[in-house]
Amino acid sequence: MRRELTTAFAAMATLITLAFLVPLGLSARLQGRDRALDEGRSVVAQLVPLAAAGRQDEVARLVDGVNAAGHQQVTVVIGGQVIGEPAPDSARLAQAVDGATSSSGEAPGGVELVTAVAGVNGASAVRVLVTDDELSRGLAASWAALALTGVVLVGLSVAIADRIAQRVVGPARRLADAAQRLGQGELEVTVEPSGPPELVDTAAAFNRLTGQVQGMLVAEREMVGELAHRLRTPLTRLRIDLDRVTDDDLATDLHTGVDALRDEIDDLIAQARRTADPPRPLDVNRVVADRYEFWRALAADEERQCQLLLGGVPVDPAEPGARWRAVTVAVEPEALAAGLDVLLENVFAHTERGVAFQLSVAADPDGGCVIAVDDAGPGFDPSMMAAGRSGGGSTGLGLAIVGRLARSTGGSMAVETSPLGGARVVCRLGTGAGRRAAPV
């Protein structure tokens, strides 16, 4: 578009320049011709009185001087004597001598001015031939000056047009690039309003649009996160209540249905939380403390003892002024919260009422951190979990979610025997900063 605008301006400037310079060139040509003819008439005016008085010596000196300059060819006939350049082929000169008739007009080599003179020596005549070179003297320089002026004017017009086109095309191109990036998922893209007022208004509207889209997505993700937390607690209670069902076949079917519902909820949450932006550094302990407080309320209902260890030190997040040292890892807070919910939910779903558990976080010497969930229950067979099964009939205890979370940071997950006597799930979060968090 910039090239098209510049070309259009250049064509318009060229036409306008030609419209002015061509008439100026023609006018310069006419002025040069009139100047040369006026100089020829001036020579005629000087020679006529001298020829009429018969002053041949003065006429000869003047004619020789003019002819020596080379601008005109002068011929004077006085009493049959020819002074200056011979002009035997000039019919106008012969007519002036014979018939005392003055005339002027085009002649071979230029324009001749012939004046008949009645003098003391009888019929005389003065002929001045203004040469073609004299008629066109200075014309080439005038055309060259006009052409140079035209080139300069067109060049300036093109430069100004390019600046104007750039002022229009540059903001339009940046706006188009921003729109394309927005379409590719870069929701934080904005443009600097610049250019004509219309483009400034459009850029401002685009920035407002991206802000609204970001706000809508943030609200949606918050709503999904809240939905996840609200649904997991009643699902966990339902799975606990299913243990009271005495019909084994019915209990198995109900467990399978509840697990399938949980998996569907996890998939929906994963779709809503999926983002193309790299995760930012996050204080893992803060998210862990928040999820611990959430599940501690359910633990109190089931008379379960629980403990939170941050850096090996017991911490009660509910106490005023509770402090802990931050452990920073590049991970999405929603993904981390969902993984913690899976680990803690398994404790409630696969251990008896009143079984204690412990949640701990420790900094990894190699970077990242180690999150562990221990319980005092009977534990479970790691080989069954690896095969995607569990003793409770679930599809892998949801630990695949935790495994994807760990791998997304360059870490790993392991199932061990807990010092409390039951199961221990260890999730190592690495330092793979900038990697996209896996779906949860």
Distance between the termini: 46 Å
Order of the strands making up the biggest sheet: 8-7-10-11-13-12
> How many strands, which pairing sense, and closed or not: the largest β-sheet?
6 strands, mixed
Structural class: alpha+beta
Chain-averaged pLDDT: 81
Weakly predicted, low-confidence segments: 384-395, 433-440
How much is the radius of gyration in Å?
52 Å
CATH architecture term of the largest domain = 2-Layer Sandwich
Looking at the structure, the CATH topology of the largest domain is: Heat Shock Protein 90
Q: What portion of the residues fall into strands of 2 or more residues? A: 15-25%
3D structure, described in words:
With 440 residues, the protein is of the alpha+beta class. The chain folds into 2 domains: 2-139, Beta-Lactamase, CATH 3.30.450; 211-429, Histidine kinase-like ATPase, C-terminal domain (Heat Shock Protein 90, 2-Layer Sandwich). It has 11 helices and 13 strands.
Short description:
The chain has 440 residues and is of the alpha+beta class. It has helices at 2-52, 56-69, 91-99, 132-135, 139-183, 197-242, 248-273, 284-301, 333-350, 382-386, 399-408, and strands at 72-78, 81-84, 103-107, 110-119, 122-131, 281-283, 306-310, 313-314, 328-330, 357-363, 369-375, 412-417, 423-429.
